[in-house]
Structure formats: C-alpha cells, structure tokens
C-alpha cells in the first residue's frame, strides 16, 4: 500500500518544478506526483487554477513561504550573478531585484512582485539568499578598466621580457630585486555592496579610466 504523503512536506520550488514539467508535457500529472512525492490532487488543482488565469503561489499549508521561481529558474539567477561578478560587473541588490521581476514578466511566471516599482521585494530577496548560501552581499574593490583589460597573457609576457633585458643589461641578480608596497589614494566614489560568490577572495567592480584618479605614494627609508 502506498504511503500517504504528508501535507505540506514538499519544498515549494519542488512543487513549481513538478508543475513546469506537466505544463511542458514532459510528465503527466501522475508521473510528476510520483517523481516529486507530491499529492496528485495538489498538482492538478494548481495547474487548473493557472489555466483559468489565476495567480498561483507555491505556498505551504503549514507555513508562510512563497516561492515564485522553480529551482531551474533560480539557478539561472545564481549563474548570472556569478558570471557578472567574474566579469567585474557585479549586481547591486536593487539591480538583482529588478532582474528577478523582469525574468518573471518575460517568462510569464505568476508572481506578487511590485508592478508599480518593477521590482521583486525584500521577502523574495531574503528567501533567495537563504536558499543560496554561496551568494552574499559584499563590498567591491574598484578595478580600473585599463587594469582589467591590460592584465592579459601578452602584457604579462611583455613585462617578463623587459625584466630579462634589464637583468642582462645591468647584470644584477634576483636577490637585488626588492618588493615595494605603495599606499594608494583613490578619488573614485565608494561602491555600494554587490551580490557575489562567497568563495572568491576579492570582488572587483569596473571603473572607467576617465573617472578613476589614483595617486600612489612610495616612501623609502635608507
């Protein structure tokens, strides 16, 4: 005898995924119910409401959590956050909430986001961050466009070629090369916090060369 499914024991995003599979004809209602361990009547009722044009939320009977996106769509958002961070163009919280709203609108996903502001709300944000603990809100470091573009293999090779020429010309040995740390003063405004992976050591945010004024000071003591 099949074990009776406990009401509200599934994750909201799992229910959303099951509904997506049925509506895309990948699974029948019965198959989705068995695969995701959700009552067949629950999936059927949600799909019926969607077909009537009603707004449907994946709300648990025993709690207040509402999930707008399926697990697949949330992963799209996570991957996009990571990709932009790797390109030194991380999203601010406000930009991320606008992106979430636009995604729901374009993909015609039922939601309760603020249509007037064109943005998802704080409840969505905090729930999203709880589900994806590998993403956090961090303070970025200003990265000049020239530095980001210039730090490529040909430029690095050129540096070492020049170093080799100087060592041969002036005949100094590696032990006579000294490392010098500078103190930098930047005139660029401080960036707002951005969304980025926790795993990376430093988050960069591009600043145009025209706007960046950076003064370096080096002091020697003999």
From TrEMBL:
Subcellular location: Nucleus
GO cellular component term, pick one: nucleus
Coiled-coil residue windows: none
Annotated ranges, domain HTH psq-type: 12-48
Gene Ontology terms for molecular function: DNA binding
Name of the molecule in the record: HTH psq-type domain-containing protein
Organism of this sequence: Parnassius mnemosyne
Upper taxonomic lineage: Eukaryota, Metazoa, Ecdysozoa, Arthropoda, Hexapoda
